């Protein structure tokens, strides 16, 4: 019996090492969505790992203030079918009167009455129920609702509201129910206005219990309602915007974080910031304990590193990242990195599927690429 157990253990270790070796071999990618001006959303993959979502800037529209918004579509890999989704606009906007659908499409809301008496009008498409939440009645003071964002299960909405201090926002959450009408203050965050109006300022974890806010990168819990984590030193960058989002791990506890820093802050005064020297510190943050694990630091010009972006593997043993016209995979434990792509190209925003078998990414002027990692 002991010998049998040893044989089974050896086989398992062999298979694990073989799979890892296969994973770390450079591969050719294929373009599965061939279209210019399309970009993956922040959390692109569907739960079944068979479809993903993307912005199509070829069909972007402009609102009355001159801001451009791109619709979101879903691409099904096996059939190449493209389905229009009701896009949730990003950026620092007030989504007044614009319907914002949940990820599953079973609920939608819109903000009305701002700035005098903001209301959240909520509609459940599955059973045709309608109800509204008056912000003034719940909070006892008037708020301007910015970037309201559904949780993945559509049971919560988080939003920001400006304070009297420039760039400082209050953070609120509300339980989406026809019987629960309470808006809860949860903390504060800083923001930087960005030219990318499809940027997500609120990023939810997969278990629907936590979210972080862009720029300050504070992490909040909704059960119980409290702040979980805030960097010891402010991550707010006054000199430039770095819009690539951090990524949640599948256990909804860890965050893959990358913090850009200009080597010479005075370089930002030049007309072309692209030539400035930049370094990117890459960490894994445990939002339960606040512990950080530094993985590596990347140095280069702003132009070379501006597309730096990364994602966890579902088992959190590896990360995939885009840098210097290549994709790389790194073993988190050993911190060894291997080039994943044979061909140099302008890659960005790699995203690892939930089943661990596929990686998709943007390829400039070509569309969305895919590499299988089985």
Mean pLDDT: 79
The largest β sheet comes out as: 4 strands, antiparallel
Radius of gyration: 22 Å
Number of helices: 3
Poorly predicted segments:
9-22, 88-95, 234-240
SS-based structural class?
Answer: mainly beta
Count of DSSP E strands?
30
- Amino- and carboxy-terminal Cα gap: 32 Å
The amount of helix comes to: under 10%
Please identify the oligomeric state: single chain
Net shape: globular
Kindly report the spatial arrangement of strands forming the biggest sheet: 1-30-29-28
Strand fraction equals 35-45%
Comma- or semicolon-separated keywords:
single chain; 374 residues; mainly beta; four-stranded antiparallel β-sheet; 3 helices; 8% helix
Overview of this structure, please?
The chain is mainly beta and 374 residues long. 8% of the residues lie in helices and 44% in strands. It contains three helices and 30 strands. The protein has helices at 2-23, 135-139, 302-305, and strands spanning 30-34, 38-45, 51-56, 61-62, 68-69, 72-76, 81-85, 100-101, 107-112, 119-124, 129-134, 146-150, 156-162, 168-175, 183-190, 202-204, 210-213, 219-222, 225-229, 247-248, 254-262, 277-286, 292-301, 309-312, 318-323, 326-331, 337-339, 347-352, 358-363, 367-372. The strands form eight sheets. A four-stranded antiparallel beta sheet has the order 1-30-29-28, with no helix packed on it. Strands 2-3-6-7 form a four-stranded antiparallel beta sheet, with no helix packed on it. The protein is globular, with a radius of gyration of 22 Å. Residues 9-22, 88-95 and 234-240 have low confidence and may be disordered.
